[in-house]
Every structure is written in C-alpha cells, then in structure tokens.
Design goal:
Layout (H helix, E strand, L loop, with lengths): L7 H13 L1 H12 L4 H9 L3 H7 L9 E4 L2 E4 L1
Antiparallel strand pairs: 1-2
Length: 76
C-alpha cells in the first residue's frame, strides 16, 4: 500500500519551505491550522525564492529580533 500523503511533490515543496526560513514555516502552519488546504499553502510559498524572504528579513521569527538590555526588551 502506498502512502499518498507523502508525495514527492509535497516533499519537494516542504524542502523549499524549510529553506525559506523559520517564519515562513510558522506562517504556513498557521495558514493550514486556519483551514487552508495543505497543497495550496505549500504551492503559495514555492512561488518565492528563499533569498527573497532573507532579503526582506521575513525568514526569521520575531522572537529572534528581541534583545534584552538590563531587563528591558528591545525589538531590533
């Protein structure tokens, strides 16, 4: 019996999504949790190259941009 949920196309799309960064992975998971169809969400992220996310700073999670200085959080 073949596992039709782990198609080569889905695996390729997930690999691309991971290269895009942590933030796009989180956003894709949230889109699916909100009712988005998995393949449609994965295909939407496949349209952009990972370098685009990095150039825009959209590849990292907001928590990665917080610096604590003497007990005060400062967003960078």
């Amino acid at each position: 019996m073949t596992d039709r949920t782990r198609t080569p196309r889905r695996q390729q799309l997930v690999k691309h999504l991971i290269k895009c960064g942590e933030r796009p992975v989180l956003e894709a998971l949230l889109a699916v949790a909100a009712g988005g169809e998995l393949d449609a969400v994965l295909e939407s992220y496949a349209r952009l190259h990972p370098d685009v996310f990095e150039a825009l700073g959209a590849d990292v999670l907001p928590i990665d941009a917080v610096v604590v200085i003497e007990g005060v959080s400062v967003s960078c």
